[in-house]
Amino acid sequence: MSVLIFADHHNGKFPKGSLEAVSYGNKVATQLNTDCIAITYGAINGDGGLGSAGASKVLKSNLTSASDSQQLCRVIVAAAQAVNADVVIFAHDIAGKLVAPRVAARLDAGLVPGATSLPDADFTVRKNVFSGKAIAELTILSAKKVITVLPNSFPLENN
Q: CA 49 from chain center: how many Å?
């Protein structure tokens, strides 16, 4: 069992949203007492700062870009199966919005898009609804879980 986080980058530099997703994944992995593994693609220097954001291991795909969401979905699903990931986390950005639902469908997983809180013991996650005027609490009941993290909703913590 592990937590897998997809970290998108732009020319080898990870945006704040990707680093927040890794930090969020590290907190989820700590709650579940398991490993926090990040996956990315292309050429990056070292771990690109993912280790300091909380990733204990960084997997690198041989894809050159994230422009093909179907190809990226296949890579992430294969990585999730290889590391036995029960939770897959994305930033709630363009790549996360395109790929997370496909990954959830292929893994037969529950999906919470735009999470704003860490899951509790029952794996209940909060998210904004009605343009941020209300908060919904969603409980993921499936064995596999996919979450996208809303930008600026979870502080970036360096480890």
A: 16
Convert the pLDDT of each residue in 76-96 to its tens digit: 999 999 999 999 999 999 989
Name residue 147's beta-bridge partners: 89, 112
Q: Which amino acid is at 12?
A: G
Cα 35 from Cα 79, distance rounded (Å): 14
CA quadruple 79, 84, 148, 112: dihedral positive or negative?
A: positive
Beta strands in the chain (DSSP E): 2-6, 35-41, 57-61, 85-91, 110-115, 124-129, 134-139, 145-149
CB 7 within 8 A of CB 18: yes
